């Protein structure tokens, strides 16, 4: 009997699509510890999980604009970032940093 094999990306996409709490934790971890390239990869995975066409429509973006925005040549603006997140049922929030990093 052959055991089906799933790629790492496919496994992550499946979890992201079916577990909203994991999606939130995933994005928070990338935002806290990652660089902009990691954030773009995370968004690309999320858009793939939720469906590019569906996210584009809900975020009031064309599919081509969304695809380009998430490409390596793209330039993600805050307005688009918020719209993409909201289309996936999550939102951007700001929390206080530790007192050690705050400017007094």
Q: Keywords for this structure?
A:
104 residues; mainly alpha; 6 helices; 62% helix; globular
Please tell me about this protein's structure.
The chain has 104 residues and is an all-alpha fold. The chain has one domain (8-87). The protein is 62% helix and 0% strand. Helix 1 crosses helix 2 (20-33). The termini are far apart.
Q: Secondary-structure blueprint of this entry?
A:
Blueprint: H1 8-18, H2 20-33, H3 36-50, H4 52-58, H5 63-69, H6 78-87
Helix pairs in contact: 1-2, 1-3, 2-3, 4-5, 4-6
Summarize the structure.
Helix content is 62%, strand content 0%. The protein has 104 residues and is mainly alpha-helical.
Q: Rounded to an integer, what's the Rg over CA atoms?
A: 15 Å
Number of strands: 0
How much beta, percentage-wise?
under 5%
Helix content: 55-70%
- Broad shape: globular
- In DSSP terms (H or I, runs of 4 or more residues), the helix count works out at 6
- Biggest sheet details: none
- Domain module tally: 1
Q: Name the average pLDDT.
A: 86
* Termini gap: 64 Å
Order of helices and strands: HHHHHH
Structural class: mainly alpha
Low-confidence sequence ranges: none
């Amino acid at each position: 009997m052959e055991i089906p094999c799933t790629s790492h990306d496919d496994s992550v996409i499946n979890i992201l699509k079916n577990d909203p709490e994991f999606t939130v934790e995933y994005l928070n971890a990338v935002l806290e510890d990652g660089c902009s390239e990691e954030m773009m990869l995370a968004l690309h995975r999320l858009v793939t999980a939720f469906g590019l066409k569906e996210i584009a429509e809900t975020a009031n973006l064309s599919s081509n604009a969304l695809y380009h925005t998430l490409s390596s040549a793209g330039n993600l603006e805050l307005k688009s970032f918020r719209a993409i997140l909201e289309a996936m049922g999550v939102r951007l929030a700001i929390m206080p940093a530790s007192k050690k990093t705050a400017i007094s």
